[in-house]
Write a structure and sequence with these properties.
The chain is mainly alpha-helical. The protein contains 4 helices and no strands. α1 runs antiparallel to α2 and α1 packs across α3. The longest helix has 27 residues.
Length: 88
């Protein structure tokens, strides 16, 4: 259950890393510096939005409330004594 719950935020973080690498590649080649219209500046904006969206989803899912993945991750990481004592 712990690994299944951790897969969602982990995949969001990996996608954000990939988007960040793509943005860095665009900027390193000088494609993201001009304000001209076209495919490449739009691709940079879309990739930037994807980066922010994936990080937002990852951190939102890590909130330890029962319907979200963070609660299942917290249950998986908590010691057995906490589970018996606090009903975690």
């Amino acid at each position: 259950m712990f690994l299944t719950a951790a897969a969602g935020p982990a995949s969001n973080i990996l996608l954000a890393i990939g988007c960040g690498a793509a943005i860095r590649l665009l900027l390193a080649n000088g494609w993201g510096t001009s304000m001209a219209e076209g495919f490449v500046p739009a691709l940079g904006r879309i990739t930037g939005m994807a980066l922010v969206m994936n990080l937002s989803l990852a951190f939102f899912n890590l909130i330890p409330l029962p319907p979200l993945d963070g609660s299942k991750i917290l249950y998986g990481l908590s010691p057995q004594s906490w589970i018996c004592t606090y009903g975690v």
